[in-house]
Design goal:
This protein is α/β, with parallel strands linked by helices. It is built from five helices and seven strands; from the N terminus they run ββββαβαβαβαα.
Amino acid sequence: MGSVMAQIAARIEYETIPRPIDLPDDMQALPGASLQFLSIKAIEGFKVQAALWQPENKAPVDTTMILQVHGSSGNLASLPLRAPARTLSARGYAALSISTRQHDEHVNTDNFFDVRRDIEAAFATVKALGYKSIVLYGHSLGTVQVEFYAATDWDPTIKAVILTGAFGKLPWKSRHILIQDEGNYRALAFSAAINRSRTASASATPVFSGWA
């Protein structure tokens, strides 16, 4: 039998990119830290932009990484993400702030499970960079997204989950505050249900979600 060459079915990639335009003036690293920007390709090809804050003169293996996910229509530069990332990176911590596929004007255009792929790609990236201690940080809508990721990926490098600005009832908020369009809400819910039926295993935690 002849040899069989290995094939790549899917992969996550990342690369350094120039600083995006129109970022806040205070989106600058403090003394003792550095800031660079990444483009991360999720497993199905979607490009996730990210801000990588790192302390200087400290190896990733010895540093705790905070992986940050914004809320509805936010982005990698949202104040609840950049303020702690900027401060903590000068105090020995690292942070990766991402713009998920529901950032800015793209809010309510995807489903819950797509955003998990964005977090998955960011998580794989920080592990590839050498980080062994990772904290998931979600703000507002990002709280349930990081909770779901932590509940479905029991990687031992996840050391903690931080939730800020959490809300109590996602279905009600999504239907009546975020979307405010019954037709759009039902279409998103149907799309999520179809996706769930195709990918969920019998042991998966039941989740009904059809919003970004």
